[in-house]
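hey team, just a heads up i'm posting the complex here instead of the shared drive bc the drive is being weird again. everything in one block, sequence lines first with there labels, then the predicted structure for the whole assembly after. its two chains so it's a bit long, scroll down
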Amino acid sequence: EAGVAQSPRYKIIEKRQSVAFWCNPISGHATLYWYQQILGQGPKLLIQFQNNGVVDDSQLPKDRFSAERLKGVDSTLKIQPAKLEDSAVYLCASRPGTSVDEQYFGPGTRLTVT
Amino acid sequence: AQSVAQPEDQVNVAEGNPLTVKCTYSVSGNPYLFWYVQYPNRGLQFLLKYITGDNLVKGSYGFEAEFNKSQTSFHLKKPSALVSDSALYFCAVRDKEYNFNKFYFGSGTKLNVKP
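-- predicted structure starts here --
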């Protein structure tokens, strides 16, 4: 079974530029998550999709971050414009959707904003 | 509110010795608890989970965890540490109040196993 795919793996941009991350979850997984992991901290949920609908985006900075999950499969996360404090690893995870299942994580995208 | 706490930023242990990585939780009702491991430049990998039943849960790579309801703890253990166990470990709990598919992660504990 293929795992969660993410691209790019690394990205360096200047502040005020825009950037987009892509995630392809495990086939058939209904729930998709985007997390932000700042160095030395645990993952913080940015947004959670159930199929192609948003379930929780309470911690997404909506003035600069946006995300979509077209057709309930792939997802993109965009930052525009980026700030220095956005430097972090952005993790995508998916779950089949049953209550006892664990999450499956992708390798992450390390973003550096200079 | 649901939450987990990992009181130790770092744990140091010698190879061959037993290891414990601590986690305490705060959740209403019976919790669903998880442990993940993160190696450098990698995503989180699932180790084990407690849903119900036996308080001692066995997982991947020889790890196990003990659920203690009275102490609201879910400590990760291994009888004999390996250098290759050196990594970042995260405890997580599933939301049981508002969003059953939401998970809360601890701040992580860095495990250093010295040869």
